[in-house]
Design goal:
The protein contains 9 helices and 19 strands. The protein is α+β, with helices and mostly antiparallel strands. The chain folds into 2 domains: 130 residues, Probable inorganic polyphosphate/atp-NAD kinase, domain 1 (Rossmann fold); 156 residues, Tumour Suppressor Smad4, CATH 2.60.200.40. The strands form 4 sheets. Strands 1, 6, 7, 9, 10, 16 and 19 form a 7-stranded antiparallel beta sheet that branches. Helix 2 runs parallel beside helix 3 and helix 6 packs across helix 8. The radius of gyration is 19 Å and the shape is elongated. It starts with a strand and ends in a 12-residue tail after the last strand. It comes from Pseudaminobacter soli.
Length: 305
Amino acid sequence: MQPEDSSKKRALLVINPRARSGSSSVDPAIELLSDAGFEIRETRISDGDTISDVIRRDASEIDLVIVGGGDGTLNGAAPALVETGLPLGVLPLGTANDFARTLGIPPDPVQAAEVIKAGQLHTVDLGEVNGHLFFNVASIGFSAELAAELTARAKKRWGVMGYGIVAARLLMRSRLFSAYLEHDGETEKIRTLQISVGNGRHYGGGLTVEETATADDGKLDLYSLEVDHWWRLLALLPSLRKGTHGRWDDVRAFQTTQVTIRTKWPRAVNTDGELTTYTPAEFRIRTKAIRVFIPPEPAAGLGGA
């Protein structure tokens, strides 16, 4: 990890106008960076454009990208960040901000701007499923159904609480489904409530992919919730928060670099809170994919390499 020289750095600032914290909350953060010598070029996303479109368009005229938003906003920027190699600064403005939490980036935008100002860069991995990149986790089953039901309006109004409200309603009607896991030269048939494939450490507004997972370990962490009754998931919740659920008998968990998941009928795949593709789902790890500004002291979600 090397500090980045912040003198006269041209920064493209892209803010999700629908972010829960609101665009006005970043004004002090922008002022801090401007005073530190950053040339801030704030842009808005026009109808028909994506965040990656905006980054690609301005890539030759900037030195870094600052994204203000949540995990879904960051997900939209991932393709262009990989293509251009531009470093990423994160201003957490979303509902859960799990990627920021994984890297130890403070939830307060001003404190997050201080991280960018300090200039400490670290290279992290990304997950990929059917060509779609993800920072935190991709899920099939219960979590994908939750993403479909949790509207943007509910996220803005209820925040993290919205996950719990909608999840409780879904749990009562959830059913197991059959899937085939193809990985490391073998195929397994399973009955599951949810399959999650993680790249980072945190996801879902406070859950942990696996207690030792980091965003730079070159591995995907898969787990499958093979519970018989919905109330078993409630019993699992403390372990899901700690990342120790792999110790339970009705949870299948392993690390890999590539896995394919097949289902009888196409099922939606949730990547960082957005439904982006369907099964069959081919997952792989994209090692050392992007550079991100992180706090000087490595967080638990980083290996420190």
